[in-house]
């Protein structure tokens, strides 16, 4: 069985826990608790350590999905989760421009620590005031179309959409190793 460890990261309320719950074929292990700080204004519960779910593809491949906490006081969990990851998806809520700067910070954090394939997943694009992908890309500092990662629209509440995003990430992973091994 080939296992790909995928980290699902992104700002608070971006949809990390939802994405994993939507697609996992086992009951998700999550660590949701009542939100105590600024997250409480946004939602009632928040992830405090990690989410874990699994998706089996065909007979011999399985995606292990690790969701990070959104609040920055749990940043140390990122270090633990990304250390063994094969690839990651950064979720960005397209309707919360006030979170874009945090997304940019997360990208820098990840890129300083790991060189692994990744995609950007834009969530909440169905919400009023959602920004266009091109504008979010610029806000995240990903202006160069030639070098930037794929930017995918994903609705974390819909399994077809989540599946497409994960397929895009697995393809990115496959291309990465195809290119680096010649
Ligand atoms: N309309 C819409 N709602 C979404 C989308 N993605 C996620 N949601 C909703 O956003 C809310 C927050 O999602 P969570 O999965 O708790 O977010 P999270 O990233 O795990 O949040 P933290 O653990 O607090 O960082 C939930 O009510 C989801 O149903 C989307 O693409 N569109
Ligand atoms: Mg969560």
UniProtKB/TrEMBL annotation:
GO terms for molecular function: GTP binding; hydrolase activity. The keyword Nucleotide-binding applies. It comes from the Bacteria. Keywords: GTP-binding, Hydrolase, Nucleotide-binding. Belongs to the GPN-loop GTPase family. This is GTPase. It comes from Brasilonema sennae CENA114. The lineage of its organism: Bacteria, Bacillati, Cyanobacteriota, Cyanophyceae, Nostocales.
């Amino acid at each position: 069985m080939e296992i790909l460890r995928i980290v699902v990261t992104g700002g608070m309320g971006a949809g990390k826990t939802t994405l994993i719950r939507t697609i996992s074929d086992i009951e998700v292990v999550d660590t949701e608790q009542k939100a105590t700080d600024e997250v409480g204004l946004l939602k009632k519960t928040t992830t405090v350590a990690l989410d874990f779910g699994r998706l089996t593809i065909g007979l011999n491949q399985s995606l292990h999905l690790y969701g990070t906490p959104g609040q920055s006081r749990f940043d140390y969990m990122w270090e633990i989760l990304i250390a063994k990851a094969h690839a990651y998806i950064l979720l960005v809520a397209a309707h919360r421009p006030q979170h874009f700067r945090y997304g940019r910070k997360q990208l820098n954090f990840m890129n300083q620590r790991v060189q692994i394939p990744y995609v950007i997943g834009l969530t909440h694009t169905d919400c009023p005031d959602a920004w266009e992908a091109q504008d979010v890309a610029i806000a995240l500092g990903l202006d160069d179309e030639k070098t930037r990662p794929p930017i995918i629209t994903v609705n974390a509440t819909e399994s077809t959409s989540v599946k497409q995003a994960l397929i895009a990430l697995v393809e990115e992973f496959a291309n990465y190793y195809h290119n680096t091994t010649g």
